[in-house]
């Protein structure tokens, strides 16, 4: 990994006292050496102290800082430089353990609170209370952003988003009107991020938003005379997308092959029909406050509460035995909920589940093409950590502390890394740069960004997420036997729209200019004051941005392009848009559209 030795001082004078000294100079080896300079000083409280001795004692080296920046890029939505410095002083495992204990307010409650506050603001401005009926997806998005600015549960939120792209529901469906339901579903992923995968699987199965999305809400038993049969949608997806995948896997994630070298399917259509029988009889547990109905099987989901788990109506559950996978049979005579528990336990303990979930999470957090060894190590943590299967804490540690995630030698490996998906880049810039906000509201519907890049939390176009984990963009990837999932949404439209979005983010004075014209823009602008200090020296500015956004991996070629562009700005537009403003904008804009930033290695 690159190491930056910051020479912020000039005219260094080395005074080496006469002694028998057999160590070498630099990287912490400063025994018996005094270093002075002509400009030793202390910067403002938000900048580090610049001491001459730091040029040789190791404190002037940024290797640990850059290593930490890379670690936090994998584990959070972004942090500022002060937080990176703080974490760099800890073993990464200690930071993970600390994050395991941090929680945050339920999004379900936060969505409701924001809805009520917005309604009161609307009424106080002369609006009608009837304009606000129930919280839709907009209030989930407001709550999501409010929960992810200035929060401390950074790893929990990152894992929740990763799980939301595996166990998919989406507002791009008949769920868009149910903001409280969306928030409550997300709370399952957030609250169980450090729990057990089996619990996640059961809670997801019983959640009414999943029941509505994959149609096992009000899923009836067979009534042959009326040509009614159990819906197979959830039965198919819980296997294909949530647990075992399409083909049998070795514990290292590679495919098990038959004698002819062909992949072996994990299930067939008959298996789907048998699982479909299991997921019958689930219906509403409670009704919304506005409804005068009583909960019953068949009640439309509009009137049912979407934040209370579905319950079993056994008279609508398919009776009899169910023949599942690998010869396993759910016996006849059980209750409907016992059948569901048995099916979930069956899939949870299937040989495929550990490598399937291990690889999906590695792809979300670290790299698109993990080695079989990496998948195997994470699978092992899933299968058994201190006698427990499905321990998410163990799985997360195995992913984040593995040598393929941590060793700098893997950075240069051509199979290593992944494209940072567009919404993660959006989260990065909002979290890593200060915000101009005086009222504490960070309500953001993200709609403009979603329209431009087709990404926002719980907004995938289908249950298959925004992109397929096996997506291969072109023959070059195919010939190298590599996948690149995020490239599926990287096309001519979204890539150009992303450039335009970055241009809008980095218009450092645009809000102020509009205000001088008597105009206002909605939203919270970025505050670049902290970066302007460094803009006096283009190379220092770019190095600072490298620590924040490109994790010390900015190539010499990209760095030269940015430095040359910044140095080419010799004056501002006017008093409102200064030379410093434009330099910061140019540096940040070019860095955030560079492959050095977009590809996480």
Walkthrough of the structure:
With 601 residues, the chain is mainly α. It has 26 helices and ten strands. It has helices spanning 63-75, 81-88, 92-100, 107-124, 137-147, 154-164, 179-191, 197-206, 208-213, 233-240, 269-278, 336-348, 353-365, 372-383, 392-400, 403-406, 422-432, 447-453, 475-479, 492-505, 510-516, 529-532, 538-550, 556-567, 579-592, 595-598, and strands at residues 13-16, 33-36, 282-283, 311-312, 322-323, 329-330, 418-419, 434-435, 526-527, 599-600. It is globular. Mean pLDDT is 88; it is low at 1-27, 39-50 and 514-522.
Biggest sheet descriptor: 2 strands, antiparallel
Distance separating the two termini: 11 Å
* Residue fraction in strands: under 5%
Helix segment tally: 26
Low-confidence stretches: 1-27, 39-50, 514-522
Number of strands: 10
CA radius of gyration:
27 Å
The coarse overall form would be globular
Helical percent range? 40-55%
Structural class: mainly alpha
Question: What's the mean pLDDT score?
Answer: 88
Q: Order of strands across the biggest sheet?
A: 1-2
Oligomer description = single chain
